[in-house]
Amino acid sequence: MKLILILLSTIYLCLAEEVYQNSSHICNTCNCRDEDEFVLECANKGFQHILAEWPAHNKTLVAVLSHNNISTLGRLPFSNYTVKVMLDHCNIKNLDPGILANIAKVELMDLSYNLLTTEAIDGIEFKGPYDHDKYFPTALKYLNLAYNMIHSLPTRFFESMTDLEDLNLEGNGFSVLDINTQTALSSLSKLKRLNLANNGLTELVGDAVLNLKHLEELDLSSNELDFVPNTLDYLKSSLKILNLSNNFIYKLNDKSFLGLNLRYLYLNNLPRVKSVGPNTFATLPLLKKLEMCNNTHLRDIDREAFSPKQELVELYLNNNSLIEISYKLLQWKTLKIFEINENPLSCSCDLYNISKDLSIDITRNLDGPSCIDSSGHSQMIYHLKSSGLCKNEKHEFDIDYAEDHFEMLRVTIVGLSTILVVMMLILSAVAFLRYRRGVAVRNYPFTAQVSYNPLQNRQF
Ligand SMILES: *[C@@H]1O[C@H](CO)[C@@H](O)[C@H](O)[C@H]1NC(C)=O
Ligand SMILES: *[C@@H]1O[C@H](CO)[C@@H](O)[C@H](O)[C@H]1NC(C)=O
Ligand SMILES: *[C@@H]1O[C@H](CO)[C@@H](O)[C@H](O)[C@H]1NC(C)=O
Ligand SMILES: *[C@@H]1O[C@H](CO)[C@@H](O)[C@H](O)[C@H]1NC(C)=O
Ligand SMILES: *[C@@H]1O[C@H](CO)[C@@H](O)[C@H](O)[C@H]1NC(C)=O
Ligand SMILES: *[C@@H]1O[C@H](CO)[C@@H](O)[C@H](O)[C@H]1NC(C)=O
Ligand SMILES: *[C@@H]1O[C@H](CO)[C@@H](O)[C@H](O)[C@H]1NC(C)=O
Ligand SMILES: *[C@@H]1O[C@H](CO)[C@@H](O)[C@H](O)[C@H]1NC(C)=O
């Protein structure tokens, strides 16, 4: 009896595998757009199965089947053209063997936000077309398995995906990259982008990335890393973009990125980082963009954290606990974007000097960052005046300081000269009057007697 039941359910399952969504006149049910690519838009249609056929197309087909309810994904319909298919948010639990066997040129497959488990993907599902007793590799370049429930990949999982360039495994259960996963990953010699974010990883096992000779971008954000993994060293010749945000990393020093050649580095939301040591970024001569925001305990960036030769283009330091920034830290002139909002900075000559070096495109921002002056008031950094901040620099010439003093001197001189002129006028007037009187006395000898003053006379 049990056997019959099992047999029946097996038959049912086999039959179920053959069930497809009726797709005649599919462009009436869905939205079809014949543009640069042929776009079939079937999101949110309540489909329980994959379509039986694609609509007629003679160019690249983009099939958007997101947000349907396809618990078992059957074999995708035949196409001679390049196909990109979105099957995210579809409640997919199982994959039929050979889902890609009908499409030689499927290039992109988005299976994110489904219910796939390690058990449901034993590797045969992604096999390419079968012909003359052998499987051909698929043309898959982009595979998105983010936000499923996978914790390990079968050793030969990528065997028929030899061209894979972009793999997204974010938000699964890879808290350790086990031996099988390591072996699987190490076959991806063309991989350029790998996303392992949000998996609870505590380390990056070297053997998992050892063979990724072309990996340019690695996302390790939102994991449980305590250190910048030293196994990144295996990727030193190719890695350009590294995201380590949202981790428990607490040390950033000259060893952290030694030997790497990063262009873009993301270090946001590292709650345990308190300081950045000397030469931390000096070892990254090609670094263009650095984000270090929301590191609520970051108080100090060593003035020698960068090298003097570095030409950073974008620097984000918002929402840290920075109190001071050394003017010597960077070549400020090369920056095109600089953000340092939400920090308890105290106004200093360093900040004044920095704002003088920054490009006008940055400092014209009226919503710019602020600092706290010696009397506890908030000041806009880009409007700081040097006097009062830089005046202790006795031996160095400071134009603004001299200008301020020259102004005072000018006022004093003008004032003094005015007083002088007025006094001279009065004096000469007095002298002239006296002279006139003298002349008059001499010319009219009797005037003195006429102007007889009894009071004066009494004195003698
Ligand atoms: C598919 O749907 C069309 C109408 O859209 C109908 O005429 C046809 O019979 C259906 N085919 C199957 C196999 O159900
Ligand atoms: C592609 O198909 C469209 C109609 O579906 C047609 O107008 C066009 O000529 C075809 N192009 C080629 C190159 O066959
Ligand atoms: C999805 O399909 C399953 C059966 O495959 C069904 O039990 C479930 O109710 C469906 N969910 C929605 C939201 O339609
Ligand atoms: C697919 O392409 C092959 C060769 O490129 C051709 O022989 C075949 O007829 C095409 N099939 C369809 C359905 O267009
Ligand atoms: C880096 O990771 C964070 C957290 O996961 C994410 O929000 C951000 O978009 C990522 N940045 C880049 C450039 O990938
Ligand atoms: C600053 O960062 C903390 C920690 O990530 C966050 O909770 C807070 O909302 C952020 N504040 C601002 C203004 O962004
Ligand atoms: C910092 O935190 C705020 C608030 O949580 C968030 O809006 C912002 O995106 C975060 N910035 C970065 C660069 O992670
Ligand atoms: C500020 O800049 C002036 C002129 O370039 C320099 O002499 C002085 O040392 C700088 N002060 C600080 C604190 O960097």
UniProtKB/TrEMBL annotation:
Signal peptide per UniProt: 1-16
Pfam families in alphabetical order: LRR_8 (PF13855)
Keywords for this protein: Leucine-rich repeat, Membrane, Repeat, Signal, Transmembrane, Transmembrane helix
Tree of life domain: Eukaryota
Keyword Transmembrane helix recorded: yes
Transmembrane segments: 413-433
Cross-referenced PANTHER family: LEUCINE RICH REPEAT CONTAINING 38 (PTHR24373:SF384), SLIT RELATED LEUCINE-RICH REPEAT NEURONAL PROTEIN (PTHR24373)
Name of the protein in question: LRRCT domain-containing protein
Organism: Callosobruchus maculatus
